[in-house]
Design goal:
alpha/beta, Rossmann fold, eight-stranded mixed sheet, five-stranded mixed sheet, 15 strands, binds guanosine-5'-diphosphate, binds magnesium ion
């Protein structure tokens, strides 16, 4: 699962990216925080079953802090977008190359309005984030349309003469964009174009189809960044009134909290609604002031918003569930004795066999049954898993 961060320049995308991929604990051996300059690992936060089971867990590729499991998700800081990007303006092509891999997008906007439409700094309250939201959507739609629409006449005639179905033709055009076939089918149906011969589609039809396809295949939420500036509040209200999913964010504050937490100065878990300064830590007036500002921001919005944005994208927008595979359903261990070693984020509706598939193809091939570690009951291949399930897979073929 990949989440892309999009937005125009200077809204705080990189600050958000850094804050979201930074660890809040002294860096142990987590093999992945930054993969490439603009690709990193962030974490979705969910309740770890360890407390409920009364065990001390030792995760291998995720983290558990105070009973909270942090499951890795890939985050891409997509190159900045400018109006006209679909036509190759600015870093247009780089933008689209990054964005195409994403399953969902977090659109970072400058809620304080301290950047103009080209990303140039202006006095807070001057820029219009509502305009930015519209333009980014439009750019994305136009880009998809230009991609699908290229040589449409020729391709659609060829497809027709070969008796190719419209779904197949579109799937071929859209390969590599992390767009699934059922999303194409849904968009065809919803646009009413499923019955219209491709050779008869005009530019308007293509754009209409792309608008629906984009909303289905690249769903997004708004991270209303720079929420610490007073000018942000009115804009956040406006966005909410438009019915958008908006998370007020203060990326700089999140970065500061994580840094202080890593240094052992404060106790803070990403996503918490407050933090504690460790006893005996001397603070100078400047640090005290910074802490007071962050505190009042968290009181107002419930958190710094960065962790919340990742969580909403993962669990509400993409409908993921967290499942914990184990090899011993009594001790909740893997073969090496790690307790609750692993967490997998799977789409809602995933089955026991789907889980096996994510671990190893052979495990799925030889699938016999699974065991729900909570109830100790056997479950079949088609059994739909629930969020928080702890599952043992029994297979005729062991992991390779
Ligand atoms: N007040 C405030 N400023 C921020 C916040 N996040 C980023 N900025 C500032 O916005 C400017 C642009 O940030 P950057 O992350 O480089 O933006 P990008 O071009 O979108 O990647 C920098 O001066 C940041 O310090 C925030 O949460 N609050
Ligand atoms: Mg940047």
């Amino acid at each position: 699962m990949i989440i892309g961060l999009i937005g125009k320049a200077n809204v705080g995308k990189s600050t958000f990216f850094n804050a979201a991929t930074e660890l809040a604990v002294p860096s142990a051996n987590y093999p992945f925080t930054t993969i490439e300059a603009n690709v990193g690992v962030s974490y979705a936060r969910t309740k770890c079953p360890c407390r409920e089971f009364g065990v001390q867990c030792n995760p291998v590729h995720s983290m558990c802090i105070d009973g909270n499991r942090f499951a890795p998700v890939k985050l891409i800081d997509v190159a900045g977008l400018v109006p006209g990007a679909h036509a190759g303006k600015g870093l247009g092509n780089k933008f689209l190359d990054d964005a195409r891999q994403a399953d969902a997008l977090i659109h970072v906007v400058d809620a304080s309005g301290s950047t103009d439409s080209n990303g140039k700094p202006v006095p807070p309250g001057t820029g219009d984030p509502m305009f930015d939201i519209k333009f980014v959507e439009e750019e994305f739609d136009l880009w998809l349309a230009s991609l699908i629409g290229r040589d449409w006449g020729k391709t659609s005639r060829e497809a027709e003469s070969q008796g190719q179905k419209i779904e197949q033709m579109l799937a071929k055009r859209l390969s590599g964009l992390a767009i699934r076939e059922h999303q194409i089918a849904t968009a065809l149906h919803a646009s009413g174009l499923g019955m219209k011969k491709p050779v008869l589609w005009n530019e308007q039809d293509i754009l209409h189809f792309c608008q629906i396809l984009r909303s289905k295949s690249k769903p997004f939420i708004i991270a209303a960044n720079k929420a610490d500036l007073p000018e942000a509040e009115a804009n956040i209200q406006k966005m909410k009134k438009e019915g958008l999913t908006v998370v007020p964010c203060a990326s700089e504050a999140e970065a500061m909290l994580k840094k202080a937490s890593r240094k052992g100065v404060i106790h803070y878990l990403p996503g918490d609604n407050s933090f504690d300064v460790k006893p005996g830590v001397p603070l100078n007036p400047q640090q005290q002031k910074a802490i007071d500002i962050v505190r009042s921001l968290m009181e107002k919005y419930g958190s710094t918003g960065v962790q919340e944005a990742i969580n909403i994208t993962c669990f509400k927008l993409l409908h993921m569930i967290a499942v914990y595979p184990v090899e011993d359903e009594f001790k909740l261990m893997d073969k090496k004795g790690n307790v609750l070693p692993d967490v997998r984020l799977l789409p809602e509706g995933s089955t026991a066999k789907d889980l096996a598939e994510t671990i190893h193809a052979d495990l799925a091939k030889g699938f016999l049954h699974a065991v729900d570690a909570r109830t100790k009951q056997r479950i079949g291949a088609d059994h739909k898993l629930n969020h928080g399930d702890v599952i043992k897979i029994v297979s005729a073929m062991s992991r390779g």
